[in-house]
Each structure stands twice: as structure tokens, then as C-alpha cells.
Design a protein that fits this description.
Length: 88
Amino acid sequence: MTFIEFKKLLLDAELTIPKFTALIKVSEKNIQAYKKKKEVPNAIVTVAACFAKMNQEGIDYKALIEQLDLQKKEKKGAGFSNKKEKKD
């Protein structure tokens, strides 16, 4: 699905990208990266489509998702600091 179609699903769910990312506990930067690729992965589209449909049916999906107590993954870092020490 294109990024534009994805954003329309979010509108149907009454969500903005920042609200969507906060709800599902993913980085907004990751979602915005799909804009350059012009395509959104199936899993993300599926979540947005479900939210849109539940909103249309009057289901409080936000409360359901918050009950899951999702945890945002912390960035572990990268670069030179993670290089393994050479064995002697």
C-alpha cells in the first residue's frame, strides 16, 4: 500500500502519524521512513486498517491497545562502541 493510502486509513481511524506511533509504541521516524520508500509494510497497514474499521464500527480501539501495555523498544546504539574486543 502506498504511504498516501496509509495516511487515509489513519484519517479514517481519526489518528495522526504521531498519535499512531505513540499508540503502537514505534518510532515516528520509522513510520516516516516509509514515505520515502512510497510503500508501507503489510503489518503496519493491517494495524491501521483494523483501527479504521473499529473506529467506523464505534469500537474504542485505543482503550483496547492501551490495555496491552505495549513497551517501546529502546535503541541499543550502534557504531564503534559496540565492536567486540579482539581475542589475544
